[in-house]
Amino acid sequence: MNLALSDEQQLFADGIGRFLEKRYAFEHRRQMVAEQRWGDPAIWSALAELGCFGIAVPETAGGFGGGSVEIGLMMRALGRHLAIEPVAAAVVAGTLLGGTEGADDLIEALIGGEMRLAPCFDLVCGVSGVSGSARSLAGGHAAHGLLAACEQSLHLVDPADVRVTPVPLLDDTIGVDVVAEDAPSRRLEVGADWPRHRALAIARGQLARAWQALGVLEGALDATTAYMRERRQFGRPLGAFQTIQHRVAEMTVAAKEAEVAAMLGALVLDAAGPGADAERALSAATGRIAAASAIVAETAVQLHGGMGVSDELDISARFRHLQAFRFRAEAVEQPVERYAEAVVASGAHHHSAVLVEA
Amino acid sequence: MDLVLDADQRRFRDEVRAFLQDALTDGLRAGQSRVIGVYPEPDVSLAWQRKLFERGWAAPTWPVEHGGTGWTALQRFIFECECAQAGAPLLYPIGIRLVAPVIMAFGSPEQQARWLPRILSGEDYWCQGFSEPGAGSDLGSLSTRAVRDGDEYVINGSKMWTTHAHHANRMFALVRTREAERPSDGISFVAIDLDTPGVEIRPIISIGGDHDVNQVFLSDVRIPAENLIGEENRGWVYAKYLLEFERGYGLFSGRLRASLRRAEAALKAPATPAQRRRIAEVAMELDVFEMLELSVVGTLPNGAAPGPVSSVLKLRASRLKQAVTQLGVELLGADGVRRVEGSPGNILVTDYLNARAATIFGGAAEVQLGIIAKALGGL
Ligand SMILES: Cc1cc2nc3c(=O)[nH]c(=O)nc-3n(C[C@H](O)[C@H](O)[C@H](O)COP(=O)(O)OP(=O)(O)OC[C@H]3O[C@@H](n4cnc5c(N)ncnc54)[C@H](O)[C@@H]3O)c2cc1C
């Protein structure tokens, strides 16, 4: 066990953070959102150069073989800068493709940033083609391909062969509704361990969204703390009032909890792989980050006064992102339900959550 | 960054397990399972401390030179987790975890030699004399006075809420040795032997109906000047140092998990789906809190003070203690009104009542929030 970031992990995180700090201006984002764009192609290429899309692909498949911690650090930085580009979808796609044979062309295009793929777990892969529907699918807008990750197989579907309707989403991204009826597809070769790969991809998707939310909420906390130091009313900084101090402190505690929750999810998934332990850790992480999101988002808006409910600052965008995270995770019900049925029912919660067996 | 225990860490864990298998008797386990206050009674905790002492494991947070284990923080984490999991008694921390770091950092070599071995062996049982009737959250305003008289200090005043003073033979106390512009600048940190004439201890009964805390009256109590720890009038600095160890150095997650197990064990029928969801909510918080402890305490160098993040740990631990005990009485349902002495239900009810103190002692939750806003938020 080792709880410090490795030098490589630190460098990778710093690199992305520095890049976004310099290049990801909120004004530019505002314009993209107004024009309902999927994101910025130049940013996408630069993220490819930084290694963002190879992280989730194993080295044996031509990727950089990162783990959950690398994925998490990357998503946290993207969340802090409110990036709208569908990087979480690329993480899931990379993980799925890592479980295939003979898809080197796709992997190369994914890692190079030439192809944006939207993974989808809701479709059915039959003998006559891919069918079914998906709602509010992330990363589907203007994607080059849909990856239908079925229980037994993986298929690449051309968006032109299915009905794709763009839908603006609460987090300022554009999702799609998909309807497929016996759509033709390229069937990708998968091995006997496909179910495990698919489970890993689902887990990483959940993890990526959680770390992204962490970044968004840490940004909201920092902005609020700074605002409380600067903004003066009644002849003194607002931060001098005890009621404000206590609310900021509650945000700080929530953000700290969210941070370690995200770490718990990542470290257990890496240590134990997809399975019961990871399911437990990810349920706990999602549930607690969702709870922290509610506290931080609501307090950040409240303490910014009128500015908090306007689109002048990024606070309102952070609020929308964090609520979208909660709705998507069905945060109030689903993680608790899953934990109750999978963990409490078996008594596993009577044992340490962190001292897991590899 | 990874969670997987390496070969050495696994070997260590197995060593701890083997020791627990051997040394932990049913009687000790039963003693811990009946705890309804903050700490077990001394007959339970000292019996366990003696076994740990024989093994050389009584002070996991101390350096080897003073008889500690010299373990890494991670070893200590594994140790505490295994002990709690096995149902071992909680060690009484006021000597080992609270005052010992102050004695090591600020006490003279003579004081270290006089007090530390006896803390380790359990011969001395210390209590904490900080709070007073007129000084709780605003501890700096305390008024118990110590006046120098030759080789002695003469102490007058009263200490309040003193946990286990009725079991203790020594008390460390904050006393006023000078009037200063800032009240906290005139405080000193002293040790008082409780068998000194002029010390009177009166019980205070808790909300749960038991006797854990006391008021201690000090009337013309004479202590030798060599019982001053560190420098005169610097006591506030030492007190703040001590409070970091009090608030953010315990490892509570294993103990909280044991409380959760105890609460569930009182269920008469298998948990309903609704009860399982309530248990899940608390267990999820607990899992994340365990990671918080591991990532903060589990990465500190041996013996190092945790800093202001200790207030985050304190706040989370105290709220979770309340959440776990609240769940305990919820699971009892209407039987939560029955207070049959010694029954499993009554243990849960009493623990629930006494847990209300968790957000008050060691600095009230509001005080922790103030520290967090200032130290971590810069407000
Ligand atoms: C079970 C138990 C064991 C204890 N053991 C010991 C011990 O062994 N040794 C020892 O020295 N002390 C001990 N204490 C005392 C403990 O540290 C004090 O109770 C605590 O510091 C609060 O002081 P108080 O009770 O005087 O409350 P007060 O200071 O009177 O405060 C009352 C309430 O007001 C609020 N409040 C206080 N200050 C502020 C503020 N600045 N801003 C906003 N709200 C505020 C809080 O909600 C607080 O609970 C123990 C207490 C309990 C309950």
Automatic annotation (TrEMBL), chain A:
Highest taxon above the source species: Bacteria
Chain segments annotated as transmembrane: none
Assigned keywords, A-Z: FAD, Flavoprotein, Oxidoreductase
Cofactor(s) annotated in UniProt: FAD
Start and end residues of each Acyl-CoA dehydrogenase/oxidase C-terminal domain: 203-327
Domain Acyl-CoA dehydrogenase/oxidase N-terminal: 6-95
MF annotations from Gene Ontology: acyl-CoA dehydrogenase activity; flavin adenine dinucleotide binding
Entry similarity comment: Belongs to the acyl-CoA dehydrogenase family.
Listed name of the protein: Acyl-CoA dehydrogenase
Species the sequence originates in: Sphingomonas jatrophae
From TrEMBL, chain B:
Domain Acyl-CoA oxidase/dehydrogenase middle: residue ranges: 127-208
Top-level taxonomic group: Bacteria
One family name in Pfam for this protein: Acyl-CoA_dh_N
Cofactor (UniProt): FAD
Chain ranges of the Acyl-CoA dehydrogenase/oxidase N-terminal domain: 7-123
Molecular function per GO: flavin adenine dinucleotide binding; oxidoreductase activity, acting on the CH-CH group of donors
Keywords for this protein: FAD, Flavoprotein, Oxidoreductase
Residue span, Acyl-CoA dehydrogenase/oxidase C-terminal domain: 233-376
GO CC, alphabetical: plasma membrane
SUPFAM superfamilies from the UniProt entry: Acyl-CoA dehydrogenase C-terminal domain-like, Acyl-CoA dehydrogenase NM domain-like
Family: Belongs to the acyl-CoA dehydrogenase family.
Name of the protein: Acyl-CoA dehydrogenase
Source organism of the structure: Sphingomonas jatrophae
